[in-house]
Specification:
The protein has 120 residues and is mainly alpha-helical. It has seven helices and two strands, in the order H-H-H-E-H-H-E-H-H.
Length: 120
């Protein structure tokens, strides 16, 4: 219920970052999305743990000017973001653990089949 009304009206998930080869940065993804969705307001859903380090991201100030962040509380986090009852596992842990422990078999299969979180 805390989501901005525009998010509730229309949400689109993009795979532009997954399709990109080589090193990829959030700013590159946002610039590509701006070309595709010229007038759209862009929201980036991010865990509170990652958001705590946003100032270290590539071209961070420019990135923060271009979009709005929806911060999701991570288990054990500060409680400053939205609580969606997220499981206690991070993308870093998924990349490090090929067995993807801590997630359901169906989610593990989805991640494996689509090579999500894999090194490029």
């Amino acid at each position: 219920n805390d989501l901005p009304s525009v998010v509730k009206e229309k949400v689109s998930v993009s795979d532009v970052e997954i399709r990109r080869r080589g090193a990829t940065y959030a700013i590159d993804t946002v610039e590509e999305l701006e070309k595709i969705y010229k007038e759209a307001e862009i929201f980036w859903i991010i865990g509170s743990d990652a958001y705590a380090n946003i100032d270290k991201w590539q071209r961070s100030a420019e990135l923060q000017d271009k979009l709005s962040f929806i911060v999701i509380d991570r288990p054990g986090g500060s409680g400053d973001g939205l609580d969606i009852s997220a499981i206690d596992i991070s993308a870093t842990e998924i990349r490090a653990d090929k067995e993807v422990h801590g997630v359901s078999p169906s989610v593990r299969k989805f991640i494996t089949e689509r090579k999500l979180y894999a090194s490029k």
